[in-house]
Structure formats: C-alpha cells, structure tokens
From TrEMBL:
InterPro entries: Cupredoxin, Phytocyanin-like, Phytocyanin_dom. Keywords: Copper, Disulfide bond, Electron transport, Glycoprotein, Membrane, Metal-binding, Signal, Transmembrane, Transmembrane helix, Transport. The lineage of its organism: Eukaryota, Viridiplantae, Streptophyta, Embryophyta, Tracheophyta. Its main location: membrane. One of its GO terms (biological process) is response to symbiotic fungus. Pfam families: Cu_bind_like. This is Phytocyanin domain-containing protein.
Length: 157
C-alpha cells in the first residue's frame, strides 16, 4: 500500500501535460496562395511543428503547389522527378517531418513574382495556448509534496 501511494506521488511530481494541439496554417491567411505576396513575411514569427499542416487556398486552375528542394526553390524550377503538383485549390499538406520545407507555384512567372514559401518545421509539438511549463511544474511539485505529507501523516499518526 505504501509503495503504491509513493508511486502515485512520484508520478504526480513528474507529470507535465503532453497534450498539445496541431495547428492548421492557411498560407497567406485571407489572401491565400497568390502571386505578388510576401510569404517570407507571412511565415516570420510562426513556429511550425511536426503534426501541423499547411493549407494552400487559391482558385483551382489558376495556381498549383509543388513541394521542391532548396535548389529548385532558389531557381523557381519545377522538380523533374517528383509527384505531380497539387491543384485542387484547397490543398492541405501535413508536416510529417522536421526540417526545411520549400513550396512554389509552378505556373509560369508566379514563383519569380513571389509565390513561394519556405518554412522550418520543428520536432515535438506546440504547447496548448496559455501553457507555462514552469507554472505546471510548480503545481505538480506542490501536489506531490501534499500527497507525500498526507501519506506520511497516515503512516505515522
């Protein structure tokens, strides 16, 4: 019985919520995926995590989305041996791995006019809104201390 109570106290002391929600980012926000837009500025200040997704909204038939490598991104070149472009007008791309990700519009002249996006995806996931790991840790340590003191009190008194 004592071992069980101590195990619960230890578990409570080290518990930190792992709950986080994946975010869905609409590329370009209300402007969507279009030319003559600064996607570097749009991405600035955003932190992308594995599990998040990008949504490219645009009029179908007017634009497309190619996932490319860094060289093709710099050259605004459609990849030679790659999957066909996304063309639905509402393309969702899950961010499955960490690292740099590059996207361009393959319609002639669009990438050169700024219709390209580079992001860096981080491991892990975003904490829930309003999450403070130090606050949670203090609450958990306080809770564990309370459980431990209560347990010791039951054993010795």
């Amino acid at each position: 019985m004592v071992a069980l109570i101590i195990a619960v106290a230890v578990a409570a002391a080290v518990y930190v919520p792992a709950e986080a929600s994946a975010k869905q980012y609409v590329v370009g926000d209300e402007r969507g995926w279009t030319n003559n837009f600064d996607y570097a500025t749009w991405a600035e200040g955003k932190t992308f995590f594995v599990g998040d997704s990008l949504v490219f909204n645009y009029p179908a038939g007017k634009h497309n989305v190619f996932k490319v490598n860094g060289t093709d991104f710099q050259d605004c070149a459609k990849p030679l041996a790659a999957a066909p472009p996304l063309t639905s007008g509402s393309d969702e791309i899950p961010l499955k791995t960490a690292g740099k990700k590059w996207y361009i519009c393959g319609v002639s002249g669009h990438c050169a006019s700024g219709q390209k996006l580079v992001i860096t995806v981080s491991e892990g996931s975003a904490p829930p809104a309003g999450y403070s790991s130090s606050g949670v840790a203090m609450v958990n340590i306080g809770f564990a201390a309370l459980v431990l003191v209560g347990t010791l009190g039951m054993l010795f008194f």
